[in-house]
Amino acid sequence: MEERQIRNPNFEIRNKFESSKFEPLRLWNLKFGVSLVLGVWCLVFLSGCSVGPNYKRPNLGLPENFRNAPIPVSTNSIADLPWWEIFQDEDLRALIRIAFTNNNDLRQAIARVEQSRGLLEQARSGFFPQINYEGSAGRGKNASVAGPVFNGGQTANTFLAAANASWEIDLWGRIRRLTESARAQLLASESARRAVMTTVLADVATGYFQLLALDAQLKIAREATNSFGESLRIFTQRLEAGVASNLEAARAEAAEASEAATVPDLERQIVLQENALAILIGRNPGPIPRRLNLLDEHTPPEVPAGLPSSLLQRRPDVAQNEELLRSANAQVGVAVADFFPQLSLTGFFGQVNPELAAFTSGGSLAWSAAAGLTGPIFHGGQLRGAYHQALGQREEARWRYQAVVLTALQEVSNALISREKYEQVAVQQERAVKANQVAVQVSKERYVAGRAGYFELLEAQQQLFPAENALVQAQLNQLLSFVQLYRSLGGGWQQPGK
Fold it and tell me: Does 84 score more than 50 pLDDT?
């Protein structure tokens, strides 16, 4: 039996009818899909552009090397070394660690970093829809939840529960510029925190070395008092033996008393310096532990400064002011974006019903979706004034940044020449101390042997002890110049383990 395919005319007619019926709908869906894709693509494309100038670092005209820097030029810098490798005194290291934890100025700087981080979070929130909720219940006559409305004089209940959303489409990059500015402010506050750390480090090291210098001067004053006292004893014995005059004893007593008067004053200065250091590390006034003396402190024999260009990344105050310049530049973009229209999307979805029992019924559903476009027409020069203000603030930040860079170069050069010259002063002053020590010993022997007068001995002693104090001051200046060089090069803000 030959098998045949039976065709149903009604089935074919129905298929053709249904195809022709839904063809416009399919075509509309296709057009809508294409339009939606094109619209989203246009929004993404437009939101990818940001009006206003992009940041570019100003031409600073940096020199190839620091003035007074050693030759040949080295790319390495002592500021690359962490502070715990620079300072070998364990007591000083402990003070620095405590200061980095308890110093009040540093804590304030950390709090300012957290504030800037919060401002950045606020600025970034503009990229996302803002969704809120609301609910209300009321009863009134000729009134609704939104306010007065005529309803025929009826008194009715109104219950509302809804969620609404709004979203600004960042067509011109206004939100991106605000975020860029806030991010730069955060980085600036972080650099400011590091700058405070370098200042605290330098202040602690400076105060500690000054305390050691006071200890050394107190030791010299006590030794001088004892030395003049020994001379007074010799003169008194000779006076009693009738081989010396009362003038010699009086002069020796005056020299002893004058030197002894410096001891309590130095003790006072030591207490004041200890109190200042205690406050600096965030503690109550009290003694500062120390085991070494000033002569035990040694600075590294070689102090490479590095290149001036490295200051732009390493020195915190320079980095801080560059980030402030970046932030001011982004604010110019914000001011430019305010001249353009803003596109925002809003939506509403909720339930509204006069009866709480039927609140969840389908008939109480309420929703809306809208797009709004707003832009300036006439503001009486307000926007133009804001733009000019942003330009002026950017110029101020630019010149402040360049001034900070010049100051940094000056500080490095000053520290380099100071360290070099103070080292030479210390060498010569050490020679003077050794020569005066020999002179005191020889003059004392000559006086006891009767070959020299008392003026020779007193003169030798009066030259020795000031020379020893001058040596202490020269050694202190040498250490302080090294601390200043380390700080001016941007070192000292590193933390252990980082």
Answer: yes
